[in-house]
Amino acid sequence: MTIAQHKVATLHYTVVDVASGETIDSSEGGQPMTYLHGAQNIIPGLEQALEGKNVGDAFDVTIEPADAYGEYSEDRIQQVPVQAFEGVEQVEPGMAFTAQTEHGPVNLIVTEVNDDIVTVDANHPLAGKALAFSIKVEAVRDASEEELAHGHVHGEGGHQH
Description:
By secondary structure, the chain is mostly beta strands.
């Protein structure tokens, strides 16, 4: 069976930051990843690269930032008063928060703390990075009606309700 719209694909993968050569994540020695193709559950460039692949296919692909987690944007860095972190005893660099905005929740990482000002970065941690994937397609099947309705995989290797 071929990976296409509304198919559930299971694959083993390793992803490496092209610039540093650092392995970011890998399913090696663990469970493969299972996702619903066409439901925007993975980065667009990887989904495009998987389109038309079959069980047993193994390949390498490099995904540029625009088709991964986007370009890094200085506009997504803000300075906010420490009072915005009410209830947090000690705000420190590296801490992650979710801010509720008029456009929905936004994930933030604290990058600097100076007296009463906290610098936060709303860029995805992998924004601006080209990513090299090594992929092996393990299985492909039709999605169930429930999976199609919910927009994600259910059961083993997928989402559990």
